Structures are given as structure tokens and as C-alpha cells.
Amino acid sequence: MRVGAAVEGLARLAAQVAPADGTAFHLNEAEVYGLLDALGVRHGRCCFVPVTGEGDPDLAAWVQDGGRLADTDGRLVMKLVGRDILHKTEAGGVRLLALLGEGAAAGLAEAGRTMLAGARERGVAGIEGLLAAAYVPHAANRPGHEVLLTLKQDPAFGPCVVIGIGGTLTEWHGSAATLVLPAAGLSAEDVERALRAHKRLSLLVCPSRLYASPPVDITELAAAAAALGALGVAAGPGSDLPWTLEELEINPAVAGPEGLTALDGVARVSTRKWPHRQRPLERVQRLLDPRSAVVFGVSAKGNNPGRIILENLRHSAAVETGRLYVVHPTQTEIAGIPCFPDIASLPERCDLAVIALPAADAVATVSELVEHDRAASIILNPGGFAEAGRADLAAQIEDALARGQARPGGGPVLVGGNCLGIVSRDRYNTFFLPEYKLPFGHGRGANLALVSQSGAYLVTFTSNFDGQIEPRASISFGNQMDLTVSDFLAHYLGEPEVSVFACYVEGFRDGDGARFLEQAKLARARGLRVVMFKAGRTALGAQAAASHTASLAGDYAVARACLEGAGVTVAESLDEFEDLIRTFTLLADRPAAGPRVGIISNAGFECSTVTDELGGLELAQLDDAARAVLDSVLPAFAHRLNPVDCTPMADSKAFADCCAAILACPGVDIGLFSAVPVTGAMDTLPVDPAGSHRENIAAADSLPSRLLRVLAASPKPAVVVVDSGDLYQPLRRRFEEAGVPVFRKIDRAARALAAFCRANCRDEEGHR
Question: SS3 string of 143-212?
Fold first, then answer.
């Protein structure tokens, strides 16, 4: 691999063909082959002749050199070349020739002139020359014999390598036969492992019933992919080079007689670079635990968002008495809080400024706060910026912040705009919602930091998990004008009390995805588990006409591959996201020693269903001691193998004894316990004042009381499933209030436990 030589070749090409206005440009096929030569990636032998003007070109030398590339049957491929001719077939720019006998040279020359004339008649623009290429025998249109191999730059995450089925079958197989690999640090060994593990692409490189001898040499393919990845990093948007290699696509590379051989290629180069700005992240602590605050946009009479925020701050534990202020043009006091006519009049630089003004007014407010150095941090509530088509307003705020942060001592950091605010557990609340509508102050979760681009999502989470989980911080970060999701992850790396970082993300700023990956790898090494739901799964539309890669590996596919490669647990749905948060947060102090799970249910359908959803969990083998307990307490007809079906006849004591025996088994790492509570054999209901039954879930011999004692006595992680309706909500609450993860369906519980175990394995790898 000679990445330096490829970068030098790119530099020469950029100097020769880059447009003066700095717009992006393509490399033609011959130029791409030059880069592949530098990287040591094989391509078909070829020779190129430049063509200028409208007259007949002098093809004599090209005909002589190109004729030598024909095989013994006279086969030779001729192509039209032009950096703007992205689909040669549609332009009539690809022909397979048969050149035999004494007229071979004249036949090649005539074919070349005919192709040029036909392309000009079709109005094909940007013709630069002709390429004569050796014919490479291969099994065209047969899966496994043609490969798509691409380097692409994701705007947020940077360089990735994409491997897929190539040729005309690319669209047929689609993303299901696509592998996306983050390029940073990518080795040939990494590529080999990923190819072997892929359900479809492994058929390219591993012996199978389809191919006893795999058509593609895995060593060659892995080396080529790693070489492209290294070039993508060296010439990416985060490099010091003045331009970026946005994409280099090989389609197809074929299993030829000499090995993997590229038969076509296209590349695109731009001047896009990631912005570089260092924010004073030490001020995030002031944002999350302020001792002083000022609010803008407070109504003296009505209950507007600013007034609600002020009322919430009045009752906060963080802001010290006498250090809460309002800026208001006419009032001297609102609700007992002193008002000042302008920013310059404020008596101190506040730790926190909350701006609840319209977007246009917010611009001047941020600028004045920076100019007068009156805030260490800012929460910018209003929308109406880039998301509403007013990128100019956002740019003015970003420019003001940049000026402040560039001065000695730095300026303020800002969250928003278009954000709901922040709730810092036991410290303060700036959500512009009355507390009687959204109460805080209950539940576990001091080990959880929850950040969300959507404020409304935080509202629904807080309400749905009321009394169960209250995060250490609930942060709505909105448009990411300044502080981004990666900044908050960087902050919580320094807080050992936080063991779970959960984030709802709709998009990353340019380059911030790559920074998030760096922080996620540090989190993995520290044992901080990162969970994400990434909204927005549409494929990249830009440049879709230029390549197949955009449709195969869109934004979401790249994001997921990059995030999971950095150790992030990515949820497929909001339900799964909250299942993961519940499991990771409540079981944080009970890490799983391995993936061996012990399962018991009193419903046969659950025992059957759960085995289809293990997701990497392994059914534990129960030892003699556990089996002895099962034999002693269960009906003779109960199924005693894992998953254990104790049947609806098992009572509360029998079920709890079985759970205890399962957890005590040395071969069990984690427990999954489900009792459909409608059985009459178990105490699963609260006391009925009308006396319709004698059950009492608060009694010491009830199912929840017995099972909670079992769970408390074991250091192993376990979850509970209660798959029934609202009548059994009090039963769920008993487990939830004790900090036990409770699920409504056993398959969801199994998937969450599997992710929990995988994260434990990643944590162990990170520590090693």
C-alpha cells in the first residue's frame, strides 16, 4: 500500500484539472487507474489517447499500443473517456471489439472514430479521449464474480469503505449484500473478519455449497479495501490537504485470471473541509450546575415560556438566592426577581443565560452577551433558524460565539436553538413546561445522561418513565449551533457517576460524527455505555446519479456501521431505544459475566417465542442442583429444560424457587423471568376493597415479594416480563419501584438482554 504516492498523484491531478471556482470535479477512468496503480490495486491493462477538437484525432500510436492488448481471440474493450461521462453505456461509450488479421489496426482506428462521431451526434459533452483495455475473462452477471468496491466520505463521519455485489447485479441485491466499514484504522484483517461474518458477501470469499472454491481471493479484496480506506483518511475532509477525495468507486472489480481486477472506476474531488473550532468545554459544567442565571423573554403579566422558565428556576436548588435575574426593558421586578433594562446593567457574569425570545431578537441578545461577557453558558430556546430557512440568523449567532470563544478566557457555550432546555437532576429545570404537567424528582437513573435533539422526545420519556427513571440530566440540544452531541459525550466521560449515555439524534454537524466516534471509543474504554436512536434513514440523494454507492450505503447505513464499530449500541426503533435505556440503566451495577441465559415462563408460547429472539444469548445448561429444585417444586408434566415451562399450575413459591435455582446455577450469567399473571395459582393483584379475591401483592408471600427477594440476593442481572393488561399495572410498578427492568413482551426482553451482554463484552475489550 503506497498511500503517499496516491496522495501525490491526486495533488498533481487537482493542480491540472480543478475548476478555478473551487467546485467539485470528477476524475476520468484513466486518472482513477493511476491512483489504483499508486495504491497497488490491480486494474485491467489499458492505454489512453487524449482527444481534443472536433476533427479526426491522430490515433496511430494508440492503435499500435492498444492492438497489443488484444487477446488471442482478438478481443479488446474500447471506451469513451470523460470526467463528466458517468454512465458510458448510455452514451454509447463501451464496445467489445474482435480484431483479427491484417486489418486489426485499421479496424481499431475505425471503431474509435465511429465511437467519437456517434457520441458527438448524441450531444455527449466533455469527451476527453479513448481507452483501449485488455479484455478480462470473467463470469459476468453471476453473483460472486463481480464486486463493487468504493471509498466514500460521509459528511459527518468521514471516510468509509463499501463492499457489495458488483456489475449489473448491484441494484438487484441492494443493501442486503452491502458491507460498510469505517475507514479510520481499518486493516486488511478487519476487512477479512467482516467479510467472513457477512451472510451474503461471505459467499464471495469463503467455500460454500454455491462455490466450493470461492471466486474472489479474500486477501486481495481485503487489501484493496484497506488501501482505499487509508487513502480516504489521508485525503479526507479532516486532513490538512486543500481538497477532499469525496468518492472513488470501482464497479466492477472482477474475479479474473490474474485475481481481483478493477474494470471501471470513477472518482470525485471537492474542496470541502470540516470546520475547526475549539469550544471551551469546561463551561459545560457551569451549564449543568449554574450558581447564577438570567432569563430573557419573561412576561410580566402572562404565563409565557420565559415566565415558566423563571418560575422553574426560582425553585431550583442550583441557583443561589439573590443570583437569579431578568432582563426586561420596563419592569424592575417580576415575581420577586430583580429586572435590569439591558445586558450591560447585569451585576455579574452569570453561569447561565436562558433566551426565550423570537429568533430575530435572540441574535442581538447573544451578540451582546458575548460582547459584554455576561454569560458562561446560554440556552437558546427559540426555533426559526436554519430549520425554518433562516440560516443567516444562525450564522450571525455562530459568528458571535466564535469571536467570544477566540478571545483569552473564551466566550460562552450555547445549547440550541430550537431546543426545549435542560433539566439537571436535583439542580434545576429550564423546560418551558409547568411542573404540574411534567413532574420531576422521582425514580432511579442518576447514572443516566439522556440527550436529545428533540425536546418533545424528552417530554414523552420523562412522562412515560415517571417514578421509574429520572436521568442525571435531560438535555435538549436542538440545532447544535454550538454545543453538539459529541461535546456532551466528551463532558460525561469525566463524570464517573454516569455509566449510561443515551442519545436521540436526528443528524450530526459536518465532522461531528467523526468526533463522536472518537469519544465513543474513549467511553468504551472507560466502561461508559453509549446507546443511540438515529432518526432519518433516507439514502443519500446527492451524487446518486454519479454512482451506485449512494443508493446502497445511505446516511443511516453509514452512521450505523460507524457507530457500532465504535462500540455504540444502536436501536432500530424507539421501543428498542427505551428498552435499552431501561436495561442498561437499571442493571448498570450488575454486569453480565457472559451471554448464558436462564429462562423460565409459565406460558408455553413464551418459551417457544423467546428462542427465536436470543440475538447472541446462549441457553444455559442447568446443573444438577437446579434440576433437583425444579423436580421438587414443579408439576410432573412441566418442561424442565431451559427455557423452563413451569406451566400455569406453578404457584408463587414454586416460581420464585425456580428463579432462585436458575440464578444460583454456575452456568447461568443472566436471568429472564416471565410469569403471565392471570393464573389463579399466583398472587399478582393488589388488595381488592370489595373483597372479590384474597390476593395482596404487598404481602411477604406474594409473587413480587418473593421474586424481589430472590433478585436482591443474587449479584447476577435479571429482568422480569409481565405480559398482561392494565389490571396488572400495580404488579409492574412493584418491580419498577424496586429498580427491576420490566417488559411487556418476552421477545423485547431477550433482545434488550442480548444487547446488554454485547455491550459488556465490548466494555471488557475496551478495558483490555
Answer: CCCEEEEEEEEECCCEEEEEEEECHHHHHHHHHHHEEEEECCCCCHHHHHHHHHHCCCCHHHHCCCCCCC
